[in-house]
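Why predict the complex rather than its parts? Because the way molecules touch one another can change local conformation, and only a joint prediction can capture that. The input here totals 585 residues.
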Amino acid sequence: MTDKDLPALSIADLQSLLRRREVSASEVIDALRKRIQSVDGEIGAYLSLDIDGAMKEAEEANVDLPLGGVPVAIKDIINVMGQPCTCASNILRGYRSPYDATIIQKLRTAGAIPFGKTNLDEFAMGSSTENSAVKLTRNPWDLSRVPGGSSGGSAAAVATDAAFGALGSDTGGSIRQPAALSGVVGFKPTYGRVSRFGLVAFASSLDQIGPLTKTVRDSALILNATAGHDPRDSTSLNEPVPDFAAKLGNDLRGIRLGLPKEYMIEGIDPQVRAAVDDAVKKMNSLGADIVDVSLPHTDYAVAVYYILATAEASANLARFDGVRYGHRAENPKDMLDLYGRTREQGFGPEVKRRIILGTYVLSSGYYDAYYLRAQKVRELIRQDFARAFETVDALISPTSPVPAFKLGERTEDPLQMYLADIFTIAANLAGICGISVPCGFAKVEGHRLPIGLQLLGKPLGEAGILQMAHAYEQSTDWHKARPPIAPAK
Amino acid sequence: MAGAADLDVAYVARLARINLSEQEANAFQAQLGDVLNYVEKLSQADVSHVEAAAHALAVFNVFREDAPRDWFTAEQALSNAPRKANDLFIVPKVVE
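Output of the joint prediction:
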């Protein structure tokens, strides 16, 4: 095993080497550092690295712990003590976290090493990572295209073997969609399964942290270490946490998969449709029954989301006022001037748009028509899923209707950007879990662009969809493909 | 449902304490108008028989023991302050 091969390993394979003492945790950090140096100039996945800190942790690592000595990249919206936490926003430029998020504490307890922070759309608001105020991240399969978003840095880092695994956050698809567009696995747990304490809040009733990894098993390993109740997050669920990696088999007999007829919309790229059709056939051949289901309120999901998510964001982002941390406008003449100019200078256009929309839908005279009505339609969407899960074990669809789009293609039209999340958004509204797993490639302008298959599971049904995704993944070679910038495994 | 025509971006931006250039306000007015026209479709949903859902998975009455625990020191809490002195945040004068 050379420095060149080491970064291509899955977390599970890396652990085997570490535990057999064939490689040391310090050697792993060193190989990863070299890999990042060689590829990240072109990709732009990372906003900051703490290699010195990681080296110190590696020297003391207990490799027999569940994730002992495994470096994990962290989306730069989760607090890691002593490291920057910018949310890719000018308003938090220079901010350093004075504490660890609960999920970081849990990763450390499991022996993992959080060594670097990855790029994102500012405050996780976007579907392409182009809303980062810091820099662009490029799709590793075609550098003229987006990696997806908002966890685009985490997805691109894993896709280029510049991370063994990463954390992202998913408010409307921000883990699953970039995983699909960059060709990796992305997992959104059930709302409340993982503590949000220390995750900078965007839309508190929708946000959830989850892993982006090279394999389904690796996502299960990270979930094992990070799920569970946290007294510091009152929305975290006090439910037993199973061993998510224990039941990963290759058999789908007895599993019923539902195809939502409302997801068969026009506007799905024909190559995406064909790849998903093939995946459904493959899962059928592994023993799963395929049945048609209906989610009648699907067409409302994006509209509900952009009312509720912006409303919650307008309240959550009120804390960025230039008083206690972050950017402050110079020479304010009074408090209102301080707030108004600090926020004008600190926030980018998409964040401003969403705060303004959220403020509007909550304002006197409009609250009932927008916010309250959206909450009610949200309940209808939740009921759609509850009804579907009475007859099926999981739902299956494309993760994104299209493969990665061009940089700049959708930035001038926010509504078109919002529609990129059409298949992922409802899961957040309903609070259920979902995974995206690679299921093929589209050939576009001479490039191979990854396609993602989405499986949605019932609340707390993570073990089930991980098992299904694993069985599918292991019956294909899609997860072994590497972008041109990374050598094949 | 109220229409996009009701949205006055400059006014709402003041409520949200965000100064906007005229150019930005005009661009947002058009873009958010498109979004509001799109969300009009919610007026077609029959919500007469449903309760509003604040969260997907309802959790009620979450309590924890009211016990002291270690948390930030004053120094840590002030570590990112744009202006500070004597363990305090410094802000412009609020009361005349």
